[in-house]
């Protein structure tokens, strides 16, 4: 009961997450009749940053229409999918186990690490997983009913559910393909096999084709449709780790070990227990699948094979393929849920075998499955303890709850006010709850921002926590007057005047970051004894009037990935880049450790009065984390002076 209370209270008290806000703004646009898209610096159909799609977004639009836009309506669809997931999991496991075991699996699954945050709050992971188990129920029954017409209808229904899971989250391909393939192999041994396979294929293809037809018509033609898909394919490949320029750990084994350590930190479970968690059930699962195959229990085999196989696929993908920069708990959470269910099924089978002995091969001692039960239970108990919701409060942290106050402050601004975010920091939750449109200040000239009836900067809790340098950068360009502040964010009025720099805050033309503490820089670590480490990307704001070139000095040390004849993480040569956006740009290939100097001519005309310029210095590589250990910081190079020169 306390678990149910937790989820209901979350729906009543918590605003959605940043990513959830992106998803739900599309639902709001549908409700308002503007189409399947969202507004940020203009209205865009099918925004690429929205990673949860129609099977979640359309019900959310319906919830907004019935309940209005608020906390409950932004969470109620997630709550409904949690219920669907629990019911579908229970019914699917009843193909193999007694009610008590199936119910215990549900209790464990809804408390898996990450579920408290990612089952709700506008995320699509659990809705997609709910469709997986909803598919296993009819597919397992179809295999048990042979070639009857009803079996084909069940296969069709299962295919539709798998298709809906893919339409919810593209990552569902990790189970759509293997589950469909396993069903097809098992169906080949049944009468009416071709009818079953045709029904499954129709169920898989139908919803996807209808959705793509809707997208094609909404975008207005084939050219726009192809133009939308091209960057989307690149984004999918990048996010999955197949082709990615994101920060990563070199070497398959080193990457797997690094990610295992990250998972230990994220779940609060020691790495040795996680190794038991992922590896120990495998031989027993194979034995159970073999027994089901020999006995012709194809429905039971499909359920266990799908759950265990997809859990293994998740582990391999997250540990060895996904980029280290995105090795988040959210991306492995569904795999943890599936592996917990697998371990429970395996432990139950071992306990049953130890009790009766009837299911054991002759040469397997009866004590072996009895010993396996506590070994399987140990990691399951550790993960369950760290994810438990029984004693966890659903009351949101102050910063999360205060985001509602920020939205109310934004809603109360004058109707003709222009609201701005900065780059990625678009305050989607504030935009959703306030009903106001936000533009990207980076695409506007300072003169245009200052002009007009009134301009405001919306800086939500995510920007406060993750982009503190962004606010300081804007203060160099704009005079910002706070009109609202809280733990959940801030709102600033952008005054129609030039900002005034304080004497201690003045910009410099040249700065030696190795020896100076300069406030207008991002991407560097604290100074040490005469030197300073930088991340692979440094941004510094300098003063410039008539200077004609920009230059920087750096030192690359042993351990940078790709030096001495190798390749950078992006597959190309290791390269230093220096730029002033729109005014200067230079690249310098580097092949070995040492001191380097890079400079570029400034092509923008001189200005009568000194003004700020943003200089970006970057390296397309980094220090190998294994070489940097135990230092866990992201290290790129040692930075020295950066400046503009006559």
UniProtKB/TrEMBL annotation:
Enumerate the UniProt keywords alphabetically. Membrane, Transmembrane, Transmembrane helix
- Superkingdom to which the source organism belongs: Bacteria
Residue spans crossing the bilayer:
60-93, 100-120, 126-142, 149-166, 172-189, 196-214, 271-289, 301-320, 332-355, 367-385
Q: What is this protein called?
A: Glycosyltransferase RgtA/B/C/D-like domain-containing protein
Q: Which species?
A: Rhodospirillum centenum (strain ATCC 51521 / SW)
């Amino acid at each position: 009961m306390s678990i149910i209370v937790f989820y209901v209270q979350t729906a009543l008290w918590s605003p959605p997450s940043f990513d959830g806000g992106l998803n739900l703004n599309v639902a709001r646009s549908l409700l308002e009749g503007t189409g399947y898209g969202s507004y940020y610096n203009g209205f865009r159909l099918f925004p690429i940053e929205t990673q949860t799609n129609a099977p979640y977004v359309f019900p959310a639009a319906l919830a907004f229409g019935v309940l209005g836009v608020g906390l409950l309506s932004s969470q109620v669809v997630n709550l409904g999918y949690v219920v669907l997931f629990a019911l579908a999991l229970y019914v699917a496991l009843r193909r193999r186990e007694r009610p008590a075991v199936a119910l215990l699996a549900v209790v464990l699954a809804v408390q898996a690490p990450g579920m408290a945050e990612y089952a709700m709050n506008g995320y699509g992971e659990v809705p997609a997983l709910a469709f997986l188990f909803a598919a296993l129920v009819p597919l397992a029954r179809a295999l048990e009913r042979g070639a009857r017409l009803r079996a084909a209808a069940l296969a069709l229904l299962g295919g539709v559910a798998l298709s809906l899971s893919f339409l919810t989250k593209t990552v569902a391909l990790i189970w759509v393909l293997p589950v469909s393939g396993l069903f097809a192999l098992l169906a080949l041994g049944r009468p009416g096999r071709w009818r079953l396979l045709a029904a499954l294929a129709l169920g898989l293809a139908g919803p996807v084709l209808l959705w793509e037809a809707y997208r094609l018509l909404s975008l207005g033609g084939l050219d726009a449709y192809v133009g939308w898909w091209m960057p989307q394919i690149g984004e999918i490949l990048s996010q999955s780790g197949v082709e990615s320029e994101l920060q990563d750990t070199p070497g398959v084994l080193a990457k797997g070990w690094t990610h295992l350590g990250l998972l230990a930190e994220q779940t609060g479970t020691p790495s040795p227990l996680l190794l038991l968690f992922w590896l120990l059930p495998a031989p027993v699962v194979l034995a159970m699948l073999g027994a089901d195959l020999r006995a012709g229990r194809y429905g039971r085999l499909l359920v266990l094979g799908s759950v265990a196989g997809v859990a293994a696929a998740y582990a391999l993908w997250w540990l060895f393929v996904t980029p280290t920069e995105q090795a988040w708990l959210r991306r492995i959470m569904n795999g943890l849920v599936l592996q917990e269910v697998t371990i429970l099924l395996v432990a139950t089978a071992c306990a049953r075998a130890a009790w009766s002995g009837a299911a054991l091969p002759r040469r397997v001692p009866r004590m072996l499955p009895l010993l396996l039960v506590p070994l399987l239970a140990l990691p399951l108990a550790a993960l369950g303890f760290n994810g438990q919701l029984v004693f966890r409060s659903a009351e949101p942290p102050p910063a999360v709850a205060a985001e509602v106050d920020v939205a109310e402050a934004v809603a109360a601004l004058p109707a003709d006010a222009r609201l701005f975010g900065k780059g990625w920091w678009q305050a989607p939750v504030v935009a959703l709850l306030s009903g106001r449109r936000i533009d990207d200040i980076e695409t506007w000239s300072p003169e245009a921002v200052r002009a007009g009836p009134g301009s405001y900067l919306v800086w939500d809790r995510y920007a406060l926590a993750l982009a503190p340098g962004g606010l300081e950068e804007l203060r160099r360009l704009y005079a910002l007057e706070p009109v609202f502040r809280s733990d959940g964010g801030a709102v600033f009025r952008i005054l129609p005047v030039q900002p005034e720099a304080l004497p201690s805050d003045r910009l410099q033309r040249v700065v030696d970051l190795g020896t100076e503490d300069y406030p207008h820089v991002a991407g560097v670590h604290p100074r040490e004894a005469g030197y300073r480490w930088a991340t692979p990307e440094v941004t510094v704001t300098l003063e410039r009037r008539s200077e004609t070139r920009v230059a920087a000095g750096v030192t690359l040390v042993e351990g940078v990935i790709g030096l001495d004849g190798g390749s950078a993480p992006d597959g190309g040569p290791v390269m230093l880049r220096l730029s002033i956006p729109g005014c200067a740009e230079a690249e310098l290939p580097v092949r070995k450790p040492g001191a380097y100097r890079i400079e570029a001519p400034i092509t923008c005309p001189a200005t009568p009065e000194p003004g700020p310029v943003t200089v970006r210095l970057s390296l397309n590589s980094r220090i190998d984390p294994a070489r940097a250990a135990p230092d866990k910081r992201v290290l790129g190079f040692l930075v020295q002076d950066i400046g503009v020169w006559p």
